[in-house]
Each structure stands twice: as C-alpha cells, then as structure tokens.
Design goal:
This protein is of the alpha/beta class. The protein is built from 10 helices and 8 strands. It has an 8-stranded parallel barrel, surrounded by 4 helices.
Length: 260
Amino acid sequence: MPVKLTLGVSLKMYFGYQQTLDWSDDVARLIKHHPLFSLTPDATLFTFPSAPALEGTLRAFAGTVMQVGAQNIAPAQSGPWTGETSAAMVSEMGGKYVEIGHAERRRHFHEDEPLILRKVQLALENGLTPVICIGEPEKMTEAQASSFAIDEATRVIDFLSHHALSGDLIFAWEPQWAIGAAEPASTEYIKTVCQSLKDYLAQQSGDHRVIYGGSAGPGLLHKLWPHVDGLFLGRFAHQPQAFLNILDEALHLLAPKEKL
C-alpha cells in the first residue's frame, strides 16, 4: 500500500495579501526539487490561504505538488450569500481542497453539524476534497475521545451514504480543549485516538485519512507516525524554513536508510 503522507498548512488570517504571495513563492521554490516527493509520489500537500489570495497562491504553486484550497465555503451552491465563497467557484479556480468545521468556526460562527455536513456535501459535489476538522470539546479518557472521534466520522459517512455521495475524506483531529492550553494533549493520547480513528476508517469505502491538527513542531511527525497519516500545520509552518524542516523530517522518517 502506498504511503499516504499528508501535510496541510492553514494560513488563517495571519498574512496580508503580499505576504501570502511571498510565502507561496518561497515554499514553491523549496518543494520543487525536494527528494521527498520522488520517494513518496503519493504524498499530499495542500495549503489554505485567505480567499482573496486564492488566485495568486494557485499561480505560485502551479507545477508543484502543493495543492491549494479554501478555508471555508458557503453552505449553498449559489445565491444571495453576501460575503461567502461557493465551492463551485473554488473548484472553477483550480482549488482541490476545502477546510470544513474548524473549531474556531464552530465556536465563533456557531456552525453546527447539519451546516457542516451540508458543506461536506457541496465540496464533494464540486470536486473538492473536504478536510473535516473534528475533536472533543472537553478533556476525556483516551477511550472516550476515540469513541467521540469515531462517532463524528460515522455521522459524516452515514450522511454521505444517505445522499448517495462518495469521495475521499481527510479528518483533521484536534481536541478542542487543548487549543491554546498550557499543556497540550500528550503524544500517547494523540496516537491512541488517531489510530482508533484510522482503524475504523480502514473498514469504510474510500481513501480516508487522519491527520493531527494540533500545534506541530520539529519531531512531532516522527513521534506520531504511523498512527497518523500526517499533520495539519498552523503558525509553525508560516516560516518557509520551518516547513522545509518538516519535509526533511518526513524524508528521514520514510526513506530507506541506504538512500540517505
């Protein structure tokens, strides 16, 4: 089975327009000839810029392995949705992925499960791969958190089955209680929950993946692999050199020793 290494980066709203383009140009140069992608041609990279920078980011990464997507889509195909971006437009522009259901949108914009499921449906109907953010709101035992994650994933898969939809899904798991906390979730906690979710998804149809969406830095991928399929990176990857460090770490983790 090919390695399903998946690395995503969300720029959130930290960058301005030109800063986003500069970051994209810098990262495009770094990844263009990185040996990781000849070793693992099935590896997936994606990034989510702010919506006004989608076109420029797509141009910057043209001809590279980096795919581009949107941080959000409207819960409707088209119509009077002022300030929203449709899945159809993201797809038309060349976007391939979309982030759905991040804890910030659940908390600050009151996105509930029916709305999130509708966005997943629209993503798939428009040829986008949804990166679905999940995670328990309160601290639990590893077993409880595993059940919570599997229940969240089950509701998504059951919804798609009910609507006769199919497609590959990426679940970005991060316990909500650990976001910004002084003490993040432990490595063993993360490995247990993500492996449980991976085992469940392996029994479903489709190439579904699990990536860890918490604070990520050097060495984390090595600690979590192969219990996760990759990482969903935030501010750490906003420095191009730091993102290169993650790629180098993945190379050393996956490459046969004699090839290094």
